[in-house]
Every structure is written in C-alpha cells, then in structure tokens.
Design goal:
about 160 residues, mainly alpha, Arc Repressor Mutant, subunit A, 3-stranded antiparallel sheet, globular, DNA-binding, DNA binding, WH_DNA-bd_sf, DNA-binding transcription factor activity
Length: about 160
Amino acid sequence: MASRAQIALRRKQADAALELSRINREMERHVQQLLAQERLKDVTPAQANALMILFQEKAPLTARQLARQMNLSEVTVGRFIRALEAAGWVKRAADPRDTRAILVRPSKKAYRAFPRFLNVSNGLLDVAFAGFTKKEVEQLGKLVERVRSNVVIET
C-alpha cells in the first residue's frame, strides 16, 4: 500500500503531466492567433513548426528527417508537406544522392514571409516566458529536457 507521501507525489506528477499537455494546447491556440495577425492564415501551427525547422536547418530535409525532428509520423508530415506545397510554401525535389528520397525546402514565398514567421515565434516566446529570468528559463529548459528524455521512445 502506498504511503500518503507517495500518493501526494503521484498527484503532483499527474498534475504536472496534465499541465504540460494544457500548456501545449494553449501555445498552439496562441500560435494560431499570431499566424492570423501576421496574415499567415493558410498555415497551421504544426505546418509553421515544420517551416521553422526547415528555415533553421538551412538545408533541404527529407520527410523522414522532418518527421523525426517533429516527433511525428512520416504520414502526418507527408500531409503537412503536401498542404504546404499546394499553398506554395515549400518545394519538393528528388534527392540527387538517393533517387527514392524527396527533399523538401522552403519556397521563395516562404523566405519572403520568414520575418512574419519569426514574429509569430518571438511573439509566442515573449508571452510564454514573460517575467522569467534568464536563469529560470535555463532551469526550466533543463527540467523539460529531462522529462522529454525520460518519455521518448527511440524507434
């Protein structure tokens, strides 16, 4: 039988896990609002995340590489890529080193809109970390990374 202290700790763990999930949903809602403010209504928060990863990499990625970085299935990322391509946000091309692979890169339209995507990202970070010191952000980052490493299942 669990002690009162063990039950109290389990409750705190459950509350923290639920709160992380709630925070993620609220951040997505906030990103949707910021995308609309920046006139990027044809991009979902997840698609914007995929574009930001492509911008950060500064090199084309395969859907598999993008899926790995987003911690999503290749099928889901494939849907993002098709929608982004249809809207003119990305270009796809065969990988010259592997004819079976398709590389994805931001389009000229995406690069022209990059400052607006950056405004969305910075706007979210400003809201999420308002009032935090640099040290608190660093501590939170370490704690969140620890939780992530505990739950990630390598495939």
